[in-house]
Each structure stands twice: as C-alpha cells, then as structure tokens.
Design a protein that fits this description.
The complex is a heterodimer of chains A (193) and B (173). Chain A has 193 residues and is mainly alpha-helical. Chain A has 9 helices and 5 strands; from the N terminus they run H-H-E-H-E-E-H-E-H-E-H-H-H-H. Chain A has one domain: 3-Layer(aba) Sandwich (Rossmann fold), CATH 3.40.50.12280. In chain A, the strands form 2 sheets. A 3-stranded parallel β-sheet of chain A has the order 3-4-5. In chain A, helix 4 links the parallel strand 3 and strand 4. Chain A starts with 5 loop residues before the first helix and ends with a helix. Chain B is α/β, with parallel strands linked by helices. Chain B has a single domain, classed as Beta Polymerase, domain 2 (2-Layer Sandwich), CATH 3.30.460. In chain B, strand 6, helix 3 and strand 7 form a beta-alpha-beta unit. The longest helix of chain B has 12 residues. Chain B is elongated and about 75 Å long. Classes of the chains: A mainly alpha (193), B alpha/beta (173). Chains A and B meet through helix 4 and helix 8 of A and helix 4 of B.
Chain lengths: 193, 173
C-alpha cells in the first residue's frame, strides 16, 4: 500500500476498496480472451493490480468484454451484466466491441457494444497486449477516483433506452426489466401527436 | 492403391468422374442420386470417417455444390495399402431454385450437425433429417446468410445501424 494514499484510505475507504479489488468476470468472448491467461498468471500477474478472475458474476465488479460480440453472445453479456452487483465497471477490449472491427459488415456480429450496455472504458487494438490491460486498469482507478466510471448509474438512469435497444435487436426479451421502464423520447413524441 | 479404388468405383458405378490431382487425394464428382450408394460403398471399403460436409454456392451456374470429405482410420489391409493416408472428396451438385437433398445420416450419423448447419446457412432442405432446427443463429433471415445473394452490408445497415446510440442522443437535455 502506498503511504501517500493513507489519507485517502481514511477518507474514502469504500472507494479505495473498490479501486484495489477489481474482480473480473471470467467471461470469454472472441479472440481477446487469449490475452487473459498470461495477464492473470505469473508473467504479468494481474493480482498486483488487484484484478482477479472470479467464478460468478455475483462476486464480480469488473467486466472485460474481450472480442467480437455475436447476437447470441450479447444476450449472455446483458444477463451477466445485470447479475453483477453495483458498483460495476465494464471495459471493452479490442476493436471489435468498439465499432465492429473487422466484423463491421458481418451478418451476425453487433457493431457498437455501447448501444446495449454502458461502457466505462475502451482498450483499442487488435489485439491489445496484456500491458494494455494494466494501463486500462490504472486509468479505471483514476476514473473511479474522480467518480467518472459511472456506467452502472447511467444504466439505471437510461435503462428505458438500453432496454429499447435490446428489444429492437432481439424482439421480446425473456427476462423482466431490471429497473422500471418509462417512455422513450420517440414514444413520448408519438403520444403528444 | 488409389488407382485400384478408382477402378473399383468405376466398375461399381457408371458415369463417375474421378480425378487424382495428387498423391493420396481422390476427387469424385457424382450425380445426386448416386451419392448415398457411393458413400455406402466407400464406408464398406474402410473410409469410415466423415470429416466434413460442406457447401459451395455457385450463383452464376445456379447450383449448390455439396462436398463430403472422407478419410480412413489406421487399419491393416492387404488390398488397399495406403488407405489411411488417402483423403476422398465427394462432390455433387443440386439446383439452386429447388435446393432439396436427402440426408446421409443412415450411412454416416456424424453428418447430423453439418447438415443442420448447412440447412441454416444455405437453406438447403435435407429430407429425412430428424432435427432441422437452428444451430448457431438466433435471428430470422430473409435469405440464408451464406448465400451469395445475401447482401451483408445492406443487412448491417438495416439492423445494427438502425439502433440508436443511447448516449448523446438528439432530443435529450
């Protein structure tokens, strides 16, 4: 523990606890997951940064989406994300979740992941090196410090829109909404006219 | 050994085109109705491993080409000495307008997931297949997505690009 941060620890112990115990969901999508085993094992040792993969989303607060997201995977991603306890942070890893990457014209791969779940940070590259994960983790620390990693709050606020987007893609979803849904702007405009 | 197999095949089935492009390779082009007997014949000869069922869309010739790739396990046999080294490709063509074929599950049970996949991605109907339900995809496509006339860019524009961004939308405070 850094002695310079001792004051912070006494001031905001919860936030510091969140910062230094980022438990990652062991959720594999696409090819980026190949970077995770070297990151968590002795070569790069993610535990130096407090990042450990955990078995279930119920124990996790960091979600690394490590590659292209097919429509079927997106369903699993949304369910996993909704099961995680708050505060939760999501990081899109690689160029495919950002804008489709090399699958930008694929028939079964979604292009922008942040249309369906909120994302706190992106790691660009195809593939990013394991070092990039740690750069992202340190950036995430800064964001948590400044309370800018507020994806889970945005999800709660704009759940209507996220849910509308999810339903536009999937049709009817099999699970009930996580938060109360209101009307989207389009529906309000329709009602007015 | 390949020449012996070629001779045996030619004597058993009439009108077969058999090529040997290189050592230990055999390409058989057969008509639609002789596929099952040929597969049965090859299985009896010792080619018991159906490695792959694949499909090609020849859109200009208005045909689908179904491809069966067979190989053999290591077995001692005096007649066919190099059998386990040989790869056999069996090709057949069916019309594109009326893509009906029959299942080869009676001969090779391993064909089941391959045929399911081809049914899903190319829209070929395999008669006698017990489970022609979607295998990989969840969405309904107007044209099966692996056909050449399926326009992926248009589809992406229609489906994925039509979904609006949540953050930074117009009409919000």
């Amino acid at each position: 523990m850094d002695r310079n941060q001792l004051a912070k620890w006494f001031k905001e112990p919860v936030k510091m606890g969140h910062k230094y115990s980022l438990y990652a969901v062991y959720f594999c999508t696409g090819c980026g997951i190949i970077e995770i085993p070297p990151s968590i094992t002795s070569r790069w040792d993610a535990e130096r940064f407090g990042v450990i993969p955990v078995a279930t989303p119920r124990q996790a607060n960091l979600f690394l989406i490590t590659g292209y997201v097919s429509v079927k995977t997106l369903k699993a991603i949304i369910r996993t994300y909704e099961q995680m306890p708050e505060p939760k942070y999501t990081v899109g890893f690689g160029s495919c979740p950002i804008n489709g990457g090399m699958y930008w014209d694929s028939y079964n791969t979604i292009k922008h992941l942040d249309k369906y779940i909120p994302i706190d940070g992106w790691i660009a590259g195809c593939m990013p090196r394991p070092e990039a994960i740690f750069v992202a983790v340190t950036h995430l620390w800064t964001l948590i410090d400044k309370e800018m990693a507020n994806g889970y709050k945005r999800y709660r606020e704009k759940y209507t829109y996220y849910r509308a987007n999810q339903e536009q893609l999937f049709g009817k979803l099999e699970w009930p909404p996580l938060f109360p849904i209101g009307d989207t702007h389009e529906q309000l405009a329709k009602k007015k006219s | 050994m390949n020449s012996l197999l070629k001779k045996n095949l030619k004597s058993a089935f009439k009108g077969l085109q058999i090529e040997i492009p290189e050592k230990d390779r055999l390409i058989i082009s057969a008509k639609k109705d002789t596929v099952l007997p040929i597969l049965r014949f090859l299985k009896d000869t010792g080619y018991e491993h159906l490695a792959l069922v694949s499909c090609v869309d020849w859109i200009e010739e208005k045909e689908f080409e179904l491809i069966y790739i067979l190989s053999a396990y290591m077995q001692k046999d005096s007649e066919y000495t190099d059998r386990e080294k040989t790869n056999i490709t069996l090709k057949t063509r069916i019309s594109r307008e009326n893509p009906d074929f029959f299942t080869v599950i009676p001969v090779f049970e391993t064909a089941e997931p391959y045929e399911r996949e081809i049914h899903e991605l190319y829209g070929i109907h395999f008669e006698g297949h017990p489970r022609q339900v979607p295998l990989l995809l969840e969405r309904n496509y107007k044209i099966p997505p692996f056909r050449k006339d399926f326009d992926t860019r248009e589809y992406v524009k229609e489906v994925f690009d039509n979904i609006p961004f949540v953050e930074g939308r117009a009409g919000e405070e």
